[in-house]
Amino acid sequence: MDAKTTDQEYQQVKNDLKALREDFASLTKSVADGQKSNLSNLRSELEREGKEALDYARKTGDKAMHDVESKISERPFLSVVLIFLAGLLVGKLLDR
To answer: What CA–CA distance (Å, rounded) separates 60 from 28?
Structure first.
């Protein structure tokens, strides 16, 4: 009788371990699927924000170019002199 009880307990432990393994596999799959979903959402958000940042940078650059062009057209002689002086300064720095 004692051997039968031990066999039954062994089978019960074996079944419990099998159920535990299946639960763990299911849990692992659920967590992995959730993380894939989170990564996908994060990737989409970063792409959208990256496009917005690129558009903002492009608009800001276009505005800066327009401002520079208008300043040069307002005072062309001063612009030429400043560019000449900047060239001299860069030349002196590169000579060293």
So the answer is: 47
Q: What DSSP element (H or E) covers 39?
A: helix 2-74
User: What 3-state class would DSSP assign to 84?
Assistant: helix
State pTM to two decimals: 0.44
Q: Strand runs (DSSP E) across the chain, as ranges?
A: none
Distance in angstroms (rounded) separating the CA atoms of residues 54 and 45: 14
Phi, psi angle pair for 75, to nearest 5°:
-135, 75
Instruction: Summarize pLDDT for 6-57 with one digit per residue, the tens.
Output: 888 888 988 988 998 888 888 888 888 888 888 888 888 888 888 888 888 8
What three-state secondary structure class fits 21? Answer: helix
